[in-house]
Amino acid sequence: MRVAKPLDLPFDPIERAAQIWDSRFGPAEAMAAVTSIMRAQQILLGALDGLLRPYGLTFARYEALVLLGFSRTGALPLRVIGERLMVHPTSVTNTIDRLERDGLVKRRPNPRDGRGTLAEITPSGREVMARSTADLMAARFGMAEYDVLELGDIFSLLRGLRVTAGDFRPQPVTPAGEGTPAAEATG
User: How far is CA 32 from each of CA 6, 7, 91, 157, 164, rounded to the nearest angstrom?
Assistant: First the structure.
C-alpha cells in the first residue's frame, strides 16, 4: 500500500524511541506497541481516505453508508448509528449532514419516536457504497501485505483490547457437543 508521502527514514523511529524509553523509564513494549498501532491507524486511514476520495467519501462516511446498507430497511436512528460506529453524536450529525448534502442519505422522521430522526440510504448512496466497496476490497482495505491467518491474528489480538474497554460482551463459547444442533442431531 502506498502512503501519500513516505517518511523514508534510515531507521525505525518507534524502535529507536523504545530503546531510549527502556533506558530512561523501563520496559518499552507497551509504549512501542501503542505507538505502532497509532501510526498504523494514521497510515491506514490516509490510504483508505485516498481510495474513497473519488467518491466524495471519507472512511467515516463510508462506514455510515455501509451500516445503513446493512440495516434491514436501509434506515436507522442517528442514535443507533452513533452506537454501532462507536462515535460521538456530534460526529454522527456531521457525517449524516455531509452524506445528505451529497444525496447519498436522506433524513426522515422516525415513525416509532416522534422526536427522533432516521437516516436512510438513497439509491445513489447504495451505488456509491457498492462501487467504493469494490475498490476497498481490491485493495484489501490496505492490508494486502498480510495473509488471512495474519489478519485473523491481528483481529484476535485487538479484540481483547476492545472487550476490556467494554465495547461489547463476548458470547460464551459452547463446547462441542453441548446444546449444538449437530450434537442434538447425532445424540
Answer: 20, 18, 30, 15, 20
End-to-end CA distance of the chain: 51
Q: Which residue range forms the structural domain that includes residue 148?
A: 13-153
Which among 116, 110, 101, 118 has a CA at the least distance from the CA of 67?
A: 118
* Residue reference for cell 447519498: 104
**Domain count of the chain?**
1
The residues that bridge with 119 in the sheet, in sequence order, are 76, 107
User: Is residue 133 a part of any domain in this protein?
Assistant: yes
Whole-angstrom distance, CA of residue 4 vs CA of residue 108: 38
State the amino acid at position 31 in one-letter form. Answer: M
User: Is 178 within a domain?
Assistant: no
> What CATH number corresponds to the domain at position 96?
1.10.10.10
pLDDT tens digit string along 139-175? 999 999 999 999 999 999 999 999 999 989 988 877 7
